[in-house]
């Protein structure tokens, strides 16, 4: 790995140098060939294992943990930071630069009451979901590998420590800006330094002046809105949308108690530790804006309020337009000759989508499997097997008639259906699938994880003999609830 050290050399005072604590008997548990390619690696070798486990030093690496703060479940925590994660620098790959983080590598000055570790089950979940979201075309951080060990860790019971090797175009979070806004007693020196670093590294086409700042924040709003539109379209609940888990680049970031929806339920809560549903599925768009407002607040010393408000006001339109684009694609409503749909058409389509979701919820249908059926229907025909699944047949018929009218004439039905299959995945990372892979791995069998990882790399393709990976969960399997304990 060719490592650069831009953050480390340019931003002293933004991190603490740390020594990884190492793992006992490290073992490769998961390896993403795709992600390895991004950082110019080909094989999971023994030497690399010792290095990424923190047992052997890496040429060119600097070891540091970043400081940040953040709003957690609505309240401000003035100092957080990487309590269990160590960055080693920016790996240079064929498609650009990637921060490499060893998540779970031991105590840091920001560990507070924690042990600096991640347990194997949470490392596997982060690994699988990072790679799954990427293949679902959702903006996300990536995972190179999971390393297991015999190092003991105590949660509700004794478990073993693991490391997820995370790759991210940036580890800058909304919380970085919040920390340097509130910790400087009004000098704004570091906040300015941070903003200039961010713009130069990640938005090199923008200038570090008033106009550049405004354009930058508009872009952050846009990228955040786009990420959340993807989550809503694909049925992904993040679970812990604290501002320290919001990447400045709009990549899905920090995967804890996340879940895809099985049965569609708009107010689905995936996080056992969130009984109020602050981060429920249907709250995510609003929370995205709330988090951007916290970021804007932290930027007020540097960016004019009018500019911040202007950018925040674009959020809803950005989100809705991106969501509409994704949903039209799922339903086959796209009309290539119309450059931009009219407001009336947008409203009509949103109503059509909303009505379908309502019917899905009433009939307790599986979100992913229902959408997948759009690749098999012929909207010009009266009868569709999709209808069989809905309880309120009359309501479905009314909806379907509106849908047929909206779809209109289809020149090439096979092509139309093929496009629906490219928009509606067959395979998602259902919690029970992740759980099977985790339990097997905890018992020393990594093949289940490997197979699941393989399937999730082609979520839109019908894969032979893989129906076990696309079935909906049994009621018992659907009851798996995740907590923040990781
Ligand atoms: N086991 C732990 N030991 C020390 N600190 C921890 C531990 N678990 C979480 N933290 C810290 O608590 C804060 C909130 O945790 P959160 O779960 O959002 O982040 P994370 O999953 O640890 O890391 P990241 O956000 O980098 O993915 C962070 O500062 C994190 O470093
Ligand atoms: Mg976090």
From TrEMBL:
Catalytic activity: L-tyrosyl-[protein] + ATP = O-(5'-adenylyl)-L-tyrosyl-[protein] + diphosphate; L-seryl-[protein] + UTP = O-(5'-uridylyl)-L-seryl-[protein] + diphosphate; L-threonyl-[protein] + ATP = 3-O-(5'-adenylyl)-L-threonyl-[protein] + diphosphate; L-tyrosyl-[protein] + UTP = O-(5'-uridylyl)-L-tyrosyl-[protein] + diphosphate
The protein's enzyme class: transferase
Highest taxon of source: Bacteria
The protein's Enzyme Commission number: 2.7.7.-, 2.7.7.108
Entry binding sites for ATP: 81, 83-84, 103, 115-116, 166, 173, 254
Keyword match ATP-binding: yes
Keyword annotations from UniProtKB, A to Z: ATP-binding, Magnesium, Manganese, Metal-binding, Nucleotide-binding, Nucleotidyltransferase, Transferase
Signal peptide: none
Pfam families, alphabetized: SelO
Entry binding sites for Mg(2+): 245, 254
Cofactors named for this entry: Mg(2+); Mn(2+)
Keyword Nucleus: no
Biological role: Nucleotidyltransferase involved in the post-translational modification of proteins. It can catalyze the addition of adenosine monophosphate (AMP) or uridine monophosphate (UMP) to a protein, resulting in modifications known as AMPylation and UMPylation.
HAMAP family given in the database record: SelO
Family classification: Belongs to the SELO family.
NCBIfam families named among the record's database cross-references: PRK00029.1
Name of the protein this chain belongs to: Protein nucleotidyltransferase YdiU
Organism per entry: Shewanella surugensis
Name of the gene: ydiU
């Amino acid at each position: 790995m060719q490592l650069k050290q831009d953050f480390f050399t340019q931003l002293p005072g933004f991190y603490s140098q740390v020594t990884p604590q190492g793992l006992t008997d490290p073992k490769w548990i998961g390896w993403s060939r795709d992600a390895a390619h991004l950082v110019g690696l080909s094989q999971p070798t023994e030497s690399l294992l010792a290095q990424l486990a923190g047992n052997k030093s890496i040429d060119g690496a600097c070891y540091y943990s970043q400081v940040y703060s953040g709003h957690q479940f609505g309240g401000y925590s003035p100092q957080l930071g990487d309590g269990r994660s160590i960055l080693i620098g920016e790996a240079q790959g064929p498609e650009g630069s990637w921060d490499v983080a060893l998540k779970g590598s031991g105590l840091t000055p920001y560990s507070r009451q924690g042990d600096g570790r991640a347990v194997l089950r949470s490392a596997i979940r982060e690994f699988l979901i990072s790679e799954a979201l990427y293949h679902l075309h959702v903006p996300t951080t990536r995972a190179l590998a999971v390393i297991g060990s015999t190092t003991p860790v105590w949660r509700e019971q004794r478990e073993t420590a693991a490391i997820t090797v995370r790759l991210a175009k940036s580890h800058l979070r909304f919380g970085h800006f919040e920390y340097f806004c509130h910790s400087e007693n009004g000098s704004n020196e570091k906040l300015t330094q941070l903003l200039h670093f961010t713009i130069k590294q990640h938005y090199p086409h923008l200038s570090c002046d008033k106009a550049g700042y405004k354009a930058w924040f508009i872009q952050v709003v846009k990228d955040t809105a786009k990420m959340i539109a993807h989550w809503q379209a694909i049925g992904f609940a993040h679970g812990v949308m604290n501002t320290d888990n919001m990447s400045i680049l709009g990549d899905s970031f920090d995967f804890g108690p996340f879940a895809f929806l099985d049965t569609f339920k708009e107010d689905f809560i995936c996080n056992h530790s969130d009984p109020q549903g602050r981060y429920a599925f249907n709250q995510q768009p609003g929370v995205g804006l709330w988090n951007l407002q916290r970021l804007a607040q932290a930027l007020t010393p540097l960016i004019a309020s009018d500019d911040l408000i202007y950018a925040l006001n674009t959020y809803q339109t950005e989100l809705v337009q991106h969501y509409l684009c994704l949903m039209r694609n799922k339903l086959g409503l796209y009309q290539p000759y119309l450059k931009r749909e009219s407001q009336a058409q947008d409203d009509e389509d949103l109503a059509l989508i909303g009505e379908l979701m309502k019917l899905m919820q009433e009939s307790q249908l599986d979100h992913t499997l229902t959408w997948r059926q759009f690749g098999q229907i012929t909207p010009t025909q009266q009868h569709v097997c999709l209808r069989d699944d809905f309880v309120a047949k009359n309501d479905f018929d009314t909806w379907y008639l509106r849908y047929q009218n909206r779809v209109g004439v289809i020149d090439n039905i096979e092509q139309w259906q093929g496009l629906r299959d490219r928009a509606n995945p067959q395979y998602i990372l259902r919690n029970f699938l992740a759980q099977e892979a985790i339990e097997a791995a905890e018992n020393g069998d990594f093949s289940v994880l490997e197979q699941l990882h393989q399937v999730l790399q082609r979520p839109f393709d019908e894969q032979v003999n893989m129906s076990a990976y696309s079935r909906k969960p049994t009621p018992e399997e659907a009851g798996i609830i995740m907590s923040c304990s990781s």
